[in-house]
Amino acid sequence: MEGFTTTTTKASAQPLENADVLIASVETFIFDCDGVIWKGDKLIDGVPETLDMLRSKGKRLVFVTNNSTKSRKQYGKKFETLGLSVSEEEIFASSFAAAAYLKSINFPKDKKVYVIGEDGILKELELAGFQYLGGPEDGEKKIELKPGFLMEHDKDVGAVVVGFDRYFNYYKVQYGTLCIRENPGCLFIATNRDAVTHLTDAQEWAGGGSMVGAICGSTQREPHVVGKPSTFMMDYLAVKFGILKSQICMVGDRLDTDILFGQNGGCKTLLVLSGVTTLSMLQSPNNSIQPDFYTNKISDFLASKAATV
Amino acid sequence: MVTKSVVSVSVAASITITSSKLVINPAHRFLCLKRLSSFNSFSASSLAIKWRGVSSCSSNKSATAMEGFTTRTRASAQPLENADELISSVETFIFDCDGVIWKGDKLIDGVPETLDMLRSKGKRLVFVTNNSTKSRKQYGKKFETLGLNVSEEEIFASSFAAAAYLKSIDFPKDKKVYVIGEDGILKELELAGFQYLGGPEDGGKKIELKPGFLMEHDEEVGAVVVGFDRYFNYYKVQYGTLCIRENPGCLFIATNRDAVTHLTDAQEWAGGGSMVGAICGSTQREPLVVGKPSTFMMDYLADKFGILKSQICMVGDRLDTDILFGQNGGCKTLLVLSGVTTLSMLQSPNNSIQPDFYTNKISDFLAPKAATKDIELRGDLSSLNGLDCVRIVHTIKSIVRAEQSRAVHKVVAASPRNLLSQPTMSSLATNDRCWKSAPSEIA
């Protein structure tokens, strides 16, 4: 994320030397998932013990992920499979955020949602009682650009929700574009704009930012983003659990989503180096996002007073 | 003395170009009505000034529809009233294709004759399109199929531009180009002697996001070229992303960033801007654009044909690609309304791109020299006195001036024995440069 902000330059991140002090100073920990709890499908070392320790100290744990491919329920299963004791109500994926956002603006139940994205979004929309079209099955559709050919689109689509979509294709681009350009008042909602994401632990994969970028390119409109770094999910949590932002610590591995999310929300921020960000990226002169603290991984919480980085 | 004569002044505009609204200062209109109504106790209703703008192309708007009182704060596009003048002022015409020459696969009316006429006047014709799906050769065939006499060397598609760009920077022949786009780009790269990967066949490839799965990519790729791609899919997004992010110095080139395009004449289709937008989203980099509105193709042409930019007129249907291209290049610009841009889009307060001229379609070049507006005075005006004449003349003059039209106005007498024989009116006809009438016409 280039571009220095014009606000006062933040003091640079401090290595986390006194985890206990940090833990005692907050009531809730919000964890990003990819690169903090797991990497691809592999659990990161020491995570179960760390979460247990925090719970034993009476801390509330919340898990917020920009990954929209699964619903909260499906994420609950992933946590379970990895041997972690996390309930569905503690999980907030951007798929859930999209549905929650539509609820919060009283999106009419007689309108439809066109989805460029995966199953997670469809499930959350269904749970929230919204009608939808699109999703993975449109991945099979092709268009024939013959003379006079006109692609029809549903005029009742009132919102297009765009997220990571491994079945992305031109049909979806065109359908979403038609809805946004031609249906009056049609909303353009993005679950997230992550450029790359760890879909497998082997490498980085083009993320939701590419699907969203495609629709921005054809509609010349900017989306309403519900995932990090937009504060929508944090505001939602704060209201739902009745917590003060100052009582929260956001823990994540990405500066431009997780840390910015925490800063925009006004809570404490801790960067872990177990994901995509390295120490040199944090300390690079091109980086203007400085978390309050940084550490190797969350299991550093278990270490005695001073953690070594 | 109360007279019952009715003075109705009507303007029949025989403009063949556009149904341009007559821009009239409302104050004048009401003022003139007021003035007239004070003549010899005529009632206002008996003195109606009717304006009738008649155009041969679009809907006839009735006189009472005098909307569009605009106060212009910047030099706005002028309706093309003197095509001959424009034609003689330039040496080369650059035409966009979609929306100017054809729409989808249908030729636009009057195009063959217009091109022939321009050629007969010794003008150089060049065709520049952002469409990268075909090579120049393939475009040559399209022109041929539509019955147009255009050679391959006159055509510059953005597919050609991408290859020409790589040539111009001496892109190494041992490096490869990954293409997110269609056949046109591949053909042009091949012609230029570059190695490439990707293109339509990658449209069939899928990825399996299994644990531990790693997508390999060719480390020799030194440039990713992105253009319109109806076979677009995640595999291509990821491959292009890997090349740009991981191959040191890898270039990111876009043929164009058009948001929408007329792939079929039935509707607008998401354009190259969406494929490019996807790669911008995953790489967080901006591409180098070779198509309009970047001036790469114009610089290339000017160099190749040895022409001065001031000697060129760019003709297109899109403000943010064609017209901006011409303006960036420093040449004259003409917007045609036969494509995606409508007159209201041009005149919208949200639009800041003003071409020099606008017209309905290029066959308007074939229309006669200047638009003539006839101002016809009807009724028995014989009872009006000299002062009345002066007032009428002032009214007409101020309305015409406010109109800001360079059209030639001709005063036409509907009935021979009338006002126009009055000295005031005839002097108006001969002295004022807004008017042009032979004395015989006035009498």
Automatic annotation (TrEMBL), chain A:
Enzyme kind, highest EC tier: hydrolase
UniProt entry tagged with the keyword Hydrolase: yes
Entries under SUPFAM superfamilies matching the protein: HAD-like
Entry's EC annotation: 3.1.3.18
Alphabetical keyword list: Hydrolase
UniProt entry tagged with the keyword Protein biosynthesis: no
Database matches in NCBIfam families: HAD-SF-IIA (TIGR01460), PGP_euk (TIGR01452)
Similarity-based family: Belongs to the HAD-like hydrolase superfamily.
Name of the protein described by the UniProt record: Phosphoglycolate phosphatase
TrEMBL record, chain B:
Record keywords, A-Z: Hydrolase
InterPro entries given in the database record: HAD-like_sf, HAD-SF_hydro_IIA, HAD_sf, PGP_euk
Alphabetized PANTHER family for the sequence: 4-NITROPHENYLPHOSPHATASE-RELATED, HALOACID DEHALOGENASE-LIKE HYDROLASE DOMAIN-CONTAINING PROTEIN 2
The protein, known as: Phosphoglycolate phosphatase
Top-level lineage group: Eukaryota
Keyword Hydrolase among UniProt keywords: yes
Gene3D superfamilies reported for this sequence: HAD superfamily/HAD-like
